[in-house]
Amino acid sequence: MSRPPRARESVLDAYEDVVIADGPAAATMDAVARAAGVSKGGLLYHFASKDALQSAVIERMSSRGVAEMADVATSPVGAIAAFMRSSIMHNTPFDRTIVTVSRLAQNGDAVASDALRRLRDVWEETLRPHTRDETALQLVMLVSDGLYFNNALSTGSVPGPDLDDDALGALIALVERSAV
Amino acid sequence: MSRPPRARESVLDAYEDVVIADGPAAATMDAVARAAGVSKGGLLYHFASKDALQSAVIERMSSRGVAEMADVATSPVGAIAAFMRSSIMHNTPFDRTIVTVSRLAQNGDAVASDALRRLRDVWEETLRPHTRDETALQLVMLVSDGLYFNNALSTGSVPGPDLDDDALGALIALVERSAV
DNA sequence: GTCTATATACAGATAGAC
DNA sequence: GTCTATCTGTATATAGAC
Predict the structure, then answer these.
(1) CA-to-C1' distance for A13 and C14, Å?
(2) Nearest-CA neighbor of A102 among A152, A32, A140?
(3) Distance in angstroms (rounded) separating the CA atoms of residues B118 and B114
(4) pTM of the predicted model, to two decimals?
(5) CA of A37 to C1' of D6 (A)
(6) What is the pLDDT of residues B31-77, one digit of tens each?
(7) How far apart are CA A98 and CA A26, in angstroms?
(8) Which of A140, A149, A155, A164 would best serve as a mutation to test chain B binding (most B beta carbons within 10 A)?
(9) Which has the least CB within 10 A, B11, B81, B85, B173?
């Protein structure tokens, strides 16, 4: 927990790479081992099962997600703007982790789904004091969900609103007018 | 295309049931056959491969999605409100189909991803004349994406903003004030 | 800590009876 | 049009050498 072994972390990174690029279906132990540059046996030394790999990436998301929200809450540009900006993907470690877990959830992993719901609840609680009422809070949460969803889809090849920085700025301004 | 065989349609329904309840990973040919109440051989008479099953559900989504949007565009309550209401899940045939395809896309199916992007483009074009500017259009699209995303996750067990009808009404009013 | 080799299981798909 | 039986490939996981 405190100082995770380097090799373990890099295997976890490789797992995320494969899930993001090709989807959970393609993330076999063989494929992950190849991506991590180790043999299957080497992979299984660090993660005794595929389930262990999934659990580890889910824990990683939860801890990174709470840390991210602490930054958002204290951002100088305001929590709402910071939250919305954090919702578009910049391929940060946290972005990659949450996309991975979202895909596992969509694939039917109940543990991943639960972890996502809990994280979303933390975000909602954090933002509530920064919005004028419940409706405004829902607006912010849903736009953020939409940004995430589109970006999550687009990585392994897909849609996306393709918001450039100006468009995102305008959207944030609009949401702040409506919600803050 | 014009008058699809009943048995074929009910197999497709069963496929959606399994994907929605347990995810694409659990939607094996065996599981689908069981859900459809036929043997594996019977299933394979209608759909010669798993790929054929996926293609069929994707085509189903595209045709149903265009039909849905025609209704939205001519709704008496206005296109934006109708669109937002249509974005929350009521377990309609179309809802079930789009959730299924979303999950296939998240699973790494590129054909599913492309079909979703094309459908989203159709929606965007349809709504553009009903919004005051591009930013407003993006707001509407993203809230809709967020509603879909949450609902899509929640079926196989997950999150969801749990908007009741009053809350949805308030949200629609807020978005219309901001975007129409 | 990392490897090769292998056991076990199961998914997708075929063949052919009814 | 639906069935049973079966082949083949591939995925997870174990055993044990280095």
Answers:
(1) 40
(2) A152
(3) 6
(4) 0.94
(5) 38
(6) 999 999 999 999 999 999 999 999 999 999 999 999 999 999 999 99
(7) 18
(8) A149
(9) B173
